[in-house]
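Table S2 (text version). Query chain:
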Amino acid sequence: MANRNFTLGIEQARTLDQQDILSKFKDRFYPLSGNKIYMDGNSLGLASKDAEQALLKVMEVWKNEGILIWNADNGHYFNYGKNLGARVGKLLNAEANEVMITANTTLNIHQAIATFWKPTKERYKILVDDLNFPTDRYAIDSQIALKGMCIDEVIKIVSSQDGVFIDEQAVIEAMTEDVAVILLPSVLYRSSQLLDMERLTKEAHKRDIYIGFDLCHSIGAVAHDFKTVQPDFAIWCNYKYLSAGPGSTAGIYINQKHFDKQVGLAGWFGNKDETQFQLKHQFDQALDITAYQTGTPNIFSMAPLEGVMNIYEEAGMANVRAKSLNLTAYMMYLIEERLGVYGYSYNNETEDSKRGGHVALVHDEAYRICLALKQHNIIPDYREPNVIRLAPIALYNSYEEVYKLIDALELIGKNQEWNNFSNERAIVI
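Corresponding structure-token output:
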């Protein structure tokens, strides 16, 4: 871990908060009822006043304009996905025309695989890891089945040796001549491992393999640089660190060098604007990221993102990343110093360059500890089989909140409070 000269005691937490240049943004977010401490930001970020205002603005335009909402503000809402994509693209250091806000994560995986995976006799395999979020595999397996091919023959899995981290060298060694496409997470949803996307992309391209990344657990927490990395595609959701609301419309990145490809899943909003309303039965594909839209944009599930982007642009992604790293480093320090005696540890990288935006706290009673934390007015995030995901969000969590979280975990450990709760799983925790 980088030496940040942390010390025990709440005084340092309060000093760090006083020095925090992002602390002013906390007031732009709504606190939970009862002023609970929220550490679940990598499953659903808190609602912001900016997001609310953007959503209410859309309501006003609809109320006043009806069908003419599509013409309002020089077609702002008609081109909403592309306009928002250009702003989100700045978080990736991508070109403005390479990012589209559209559909959901799983459908965008379908779109990317359908576009880039064109199997031949010699090159047909899709390379994945065994730790990625399951929806990525569901989509890939479906695409394979749609082509009438055998999933087990097409999928090539790089297995983790410890069930926690991905070995990047093993991924590179698996890039054999029969591999056509690779899909990997940028950050692992359990262990917070941040992959070296630039290294993996360069190695894939040396072998003429397309490579894409699932950014769900990194976008808004990690400052990506796609002008350097140059992946072929990427997909993500916007409701985690970006706090765009439950089920908010997702995002897709396509490297502009691939705009000449026939899009895998065509729909009328992927048609050229000039001919879209001629309603011909022949698809006239747009020549940029617009082609990757399918149906009419879900404006209400996109509007909150417009508000949130105001906050990100004011805060600066570099500042967000710096505080995120410092918050998680501080949390790990306190875990090491105060919680080990109670059976707690963490399964994530300590090096800043290899860590995403959350800490994977490990305990044999992780599930019931999550329930106990809620009794302490702290909202965590559980992942099977033994991980308490703790995501201190740079824009609205404080160092003092991290300290109070550790206080609660220590008390739960001392008193074994998990014994007060059942191991029976709830639908969502």
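Notes on Table S2: The two ends are 30 Å apart (CA to CA). DSSP finds 15 helices and 13 strands in the chain.
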